[in-house]
């Protein structure tokens, strides 16, 4: 049952049949399907199990919607982290210069952080990382660079 994923309708029975067919694909069929879906060869290090899971996800995404663009970029970076893949790109440089001030408003309060030589300072207190500051401010674990809008 080698049908194009683009022909899947919103009917649950059709999606179930497609998912069952993908689970039965051998390596050569997975690679062929991968080429059709992603318009590229899979990286050589991908296992059959991983390719099946990725194809299962793509089939469901066609029906129910996919990942947001930031999540897609994160996965793309992780897949081609060596910088050699066909869709490789460089992770943005988020190196902060000494003396830079980061400002973030959270729940009506404004927080100002200064970049020090080996750590960060906020309200006279020193923190080892931006993530530690984000946790201090919010009470929850955050990616510090993401919390401060640095795109990491």
Task: Give a verbal description of the structure.
- The protein has 152 residues and is α+β, with helices and mostly antiparallel strands.
- It folds into 2 domains: 5-65, no CATH class; 101-147, no CATH class.
- It has 6 helices and 4 strands.
- It has helices at residues 12-23, 27-38, 48-64, 69-79, 130-138, 144-147, and strands spanning 101-106, 109-115, 120-122, 125-127.
- Strands 1-2-3-4 form a 4-stranded antiparallel beta sheet, with helices on one face.
- A hairpin with a 4-residue loop joins strand 2 and strand 3 (120-122).
- It is elongated.
- It starts with 11 loop residues before the first helix and ends in a 5-residue tail after the last helix.
Give a brief rundown of this model:
The protein has 152 residues and is α+β, with helices and mostly antiparallel strands.
């Amino acid at each position: 049952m080698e049908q194009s994923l683009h022909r899947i309708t919103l009917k649950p029975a059709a999606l179930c049949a497609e998912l069952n067919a993908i689970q039965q694909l051998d390596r050569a069929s997975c690679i062929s399907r991968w080429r059709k879906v992603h318009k590229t060869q899979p990286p050589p290090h991908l296992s059959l199990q991983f390719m099946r899971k990725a194809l299962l996800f793509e089939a469901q995404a066609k029906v129910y919607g996919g990942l947001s663009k930031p999540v897609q970029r994160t996965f793309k970076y992780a897949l081609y982290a060596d910088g050699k893949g066909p869709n490789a790109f460089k992770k943005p440089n988020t190196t902060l210069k000494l003396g830079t001030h980061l400002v973030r408003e959270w729940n009506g309060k404004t927080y100002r952080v200064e970049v020090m030589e080996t750590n960060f300072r906020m309200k006279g207190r020193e923190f080892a990382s931006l993530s530690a500051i984000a946790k201090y401010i919010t009470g929850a674990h955050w990616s510090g660079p993401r919390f401060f809008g640095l795109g990491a």
